[in-house]
Amino acid sequence: MVRVQPASPLALRGTLVSFAGDPFVVGPDEAVRHESDGLVICRDGLIEAAGPYHDLRRELPPDIPIADYSGCIISAGFIDAHVHYVQTGVIASPGERLLDWVNDYVYPSEEAFEDEAHARAVAAFFCDTLLRSGTTTACIYCAVYPQSADALFAEAETRNMRVIAGKCMMDRNVPEALRDTAKTGYDQSRALIERWHGKGRLLYAITPRWAGSSTPAQLEAAGALWRAYPQLHVQTHIAETEEEIEFIAKLFPERKDFLDVYEHFGLVGRRTVLGHAIWFSESEFCRCHERDASIAHCPTSNLFLGSGLFRLSCAKAKARPIHVGIGTDIGAGTSFSQLASLNAAYKIAALN
């Protein structure tokens, strides 16, 4: 019989910061936990214990080395709620209004992701850069090409990252080279789901890019896909600029507002992550709360493109609070660092 020795623990000493609740609900004093001299003990990639150094040190054998990060903060990895890995190469492209910026920079860049080798190289750089920035989980938009999603999932898997991602579905109002169809968007997404969802720490997100780039038939197909796989996430863009809202009103005159487009096709609920929502009405905030949908606030992107100032306090109103995450929105966003994103979010909140 072979005896398998348990792995030696990994011990980290430093200032521990963790979060026990939503500061909009329980208040900042109760939400934030701070241990000036703390110890984290890990084994086999899992945290066994975290707390005051002098309380936990005695639980370790005396010969176990401790990595000393005194003076540094040890916290959980960041979660990027909205990011485009296929836009890594266009960060800081000269600013224009959103729709012109996407046409001039984003779409030409994304066409290159038809090439698998290019997709794999960018995915590797992207994943490494996220990790260097302290981000261990992300909701990620790929290109329309399924091989772009394959490349990202493969690279994330080798790094044991939590990735929630999907290929963009878009069958109108984009360059011909970036179009799928309602059927191919459904079929390709389904094949990716079967190949990657639930593999290791990988999850799939149904990803109609935004209502302006999908026909009603494609949005219906996306809704059907979610009904077939209700455990998945859905991610899309909404109400990022006033121009977008005007465009959607012309495309879907029968719908009462932007959110109603997605609601009509069964795409709003728990695990829906709506990017931006800068120009939401009170009715849209209320319906997001009722359906338990989430919003991804992307502050550096909103500032760079001049899209508007997201009203965080409105989204978190106590009468109908909404889940809000922070997204870098690379490449309109200007930094992979969520510390930079949080810095910008604070300033936007102050301006509001």
Produce a short descriptive summary.
With 352 residues, the protein is an alpha/beta fold. It has helices spanning 23-26, 28-31, 53-56, 98-111, 116-132, 146-158, 182-196, 216-228, 242-251, 258-264, 282-291, 299-305, 312-315, 338-351, and strands at 10-19, 32-43, 46-52, 66-74, 78-84, 135-141, 162-166, 168-169, 202-208, 233-238, 272-276, 294-297, 323-326.
Quaternary organisation of the protein chains: single chain
Mean pLDDT: 95
Roughly what percent helix?
Answer: 25-40%
How big is the Rg?
21 Å
- Cα separation of the termini: 67 Å
Derived structural class: alpha/beta
Q: Tell me the total number of β-strands.
A: 13
Q: How many H/I helical runs?
A: 14
Shape: globular
* Run of helices and strands: EHHEEHEEHHEHEEHEHEHHEHEHHEH
Range of strand content: 15-25%
Uncertain spans, ≥5 residues at pLDDT below 50?
Answer: none
What is the makeup of the main sheet?
A: 9 strands, parallel
Present the secondary structure layout.
Blueprint (H helix, E strand, L loop, with lengths): L9 E10 L3 H4 L1 H4 E12 L2 E7 H4 L9 E9 L3 E7 L13 H14 L4 H17 L2 E7 L4 H13 L3 E5 L1 E2 L12 H15 L5 E7 L7 H13 L4 E6 L3 H10 L6 H7 L7 E5 L5 H10 L2 E4 L1 H7 L6 H4 L7 E4 L11 H14 L1
Parallel strand pairs: 1-4, 5-6, 6-7, 7-9, 8-9, 9-10, 10-11, 11-12, 12-13
Antiparallel strand pairs: 1-2, 2-3
Helix pairs in contact: 5-6, 6-7, 7-8
Describe the structure.
This protein is an alpha/beta fold. It contains 14 helices and 13 strands. It has helices at residues 23-26, 28-31, 53-56, 98-111, 116-132, 146-158, 182-196, 216-228, 242-251, 258-264, 282-291, 299-305, 312-315, 338-351; strands at residues 10-19, 32-43, 46-52, 66-74, 78-84, 135-141, 162-166, 168-169, 202-208, 233-238, 272-276, 294-297, 323-326. The strands form two sheets. Strands 5, 6, 7, 8, 9, 10, 11, 12 and 13 form a nine-stranded parallel sheet that branches. A four-stranded mixed sheet has the order 3-2-1-4. Strand 9 (202-208), helix 8 (216-228) and strand 10 (233-238) form a beta-alpha-beta unit. Helix 5 crosses helix 6. It is globular, with a radius of gyration of 21 Å. The protein starts with 9 loop residues before the first strand and ends with a helix.
